[in-house]
Hints:
Chain A is built from 17 helices and 20 strands. Chain A is an alpha/beta fold.
Amino acid sequence: MNLKYLFRPSTMAVIGVSTSQDNHPANVIYNKNHLRYPVKTFPVNPKGGIFSRETLYQTVEDIQEKIDMAVIAVRSEFVPGVVEQCIQKGVGGAVIISGGFAESGNLRLQQRVVDIAKEASFPFVGPNCLGIYAPDYVDTFFLPGERIIHPDKGNVGFVSQSGGVLVDQMVKFAGQGIGISLAVSIGNKACIRETDMLDWLDQDLATKVIAFYVEGFEKGEGRQFIKKAEQCSKPVIILKAGKSKKGIEAVSSHTASLAGDYRVFSEIMKQYCVAEADNEYELTSFCEALSCYPKGINGNIGIITLSGGHGVIAADACERHGVSIPGIEPATIGIIKEKLSPEIRNIVSLENPLDLTGSSTDCDIVTSARHLSRDNNIDCIMALLIPYSPGISTDIGAKLSLVARNEGKPMIAYVPNEDKYRIIIEGFELNNIPVASSVEGAVLMAKALMRCRPC
Amino acid sequence: MLDKTVKKIIEKSKSLGWILEPDAKALMKSRGFDIPDSILTSSFKEADQFLTHSKGPVVAKAVSKKILHKTEHQAVVTGIFSSDHLKNEMERLQKLVGCENILVEEMVQGIEIIIGAKNDFQFGPVIVFGIGGTSVEIYNDTAVRMAPLSPDDVLSMVNSLKAKEIISGYRGKTGVNMEALTHLLVNFSQFVMEHENDIESIDLNPVMCTKDQCVIVDARIMLQPS
């Protein structure tokens, strides 16, 4: 299956555009792509007519140009016929938005569509989905542009069985400044499934980290997925829904009752270094951390804080998430103490977390980060930067990023997510250092690096 | 030849849906795994001779197509040293529902572990390993991995247990022979892969492990419904 025309289309037919319902999914999709995307968009309705001063094509075959991709938003019973027309026309693939298939018991109708498409090697996303959001290329989500929050173009590829979860996650990504390379809601996944998306995103140059929201796999499909994830050159993150123990009450062996469906899923993800996020917040943190650092760590964190309280909160969160805070080597302590400003030398706490106090300056923080990075006990630096102290400049993000790059150990920062501190946040993020908006979030980022394949 | 033994045992057990313990043990033995010395008999005389010749106490178990979970039917007696005790218990076991035979085995000591397999819908054969015994579901200190296992998988399974010190040895107590354990788990996982179409789940519980060996003391194999 060649998915190029689906995810990078130059021309697109939107089938099902209504002359009477302004909010019809096809109309929303046609409008936003026609007005705001470079993809050349053609409206189609079997009844013909005029829409927004444009003549509707009655079938996709009437369009003179070659069509890369079709969005199909007609009633389910008409879908097989429309797919046949697309194949006849030589369309490169389709997004079937329409519902009324397997999700409402119409398995046979769905199978008919699958059979028609399979015979012609015609790829499609859906049915019963939102489809594709490829920044700068195409957006088949039938949600008006002004209603949804789009993350910027970035390097996270996100694939979701649920359209609702996908849109919600996009809001969270946008809030944390995480950009998307491609977001696909695969709905009933009758043709394009997680394994196909893993193949595509592995090859996609714009994608650095691949995330999935999965409800379940078909028979044997989990094994196929994990084998591909093992071969994949990029970090893979997964959020699983449907973790209840339903269905294992009647098992007759100890093994079957110990290894319930979710337990098996979760342990196998760990076995093959797929980072399983426990919830959507973890998913967000994991995506940000792993898009900056694709290789894993053992999880020995050196914490730099400017407030004792933040250090304690971070230590508690580390314990909760299985992240360790080892002791610092005496030589490291010695050199840091020697280089600190004389004003703070005797009031700092030279342990891990390293509390530099509110009287510290950029120079103290940078020196500490540099020498902590050189400590053999530490494989990741966490900088808890509360920028209220007068000694901290707006350059601290950029300065610490430089330390991280020079020393070669991952760094994770916490900076309150306020407009006022934007310059500090960007000083990190533009230099590929992940920034969390909470202490807990920073710890989750460290957890993500631990769940990934070690260097 | 060995595979023929496996096939034969699976074929003959299909109608029951699971493999009786003596057959399950024979199957494990045919794959080169250690099982205790035993005798399958309904005669007290034969059982008594076995007890006389064995190095220590024996265990007696009822073999019944109607008893899947032996502990719940009091169908296992451990620590039999004397002929009288053996006689009394054999008589009691023979009265249990569907009892066809008595399996008398040498009693093996060691750290009780569970090794299991399950044919998972999404992932196919998976292996469970952990602290075994009759309370396994209560403690649930186990690890799960997708089969087949590599020696590294075995190490990570051991390290992920809360009771990993029991396996590695603690407070002067010797642990488990890691070479024997790795050999057993890796080969068991290969066996499960080869028979994924026949087998629904397997409990080897307990497997008695010492610093020298790992011996499968009980084996229950559930077959795929045909």
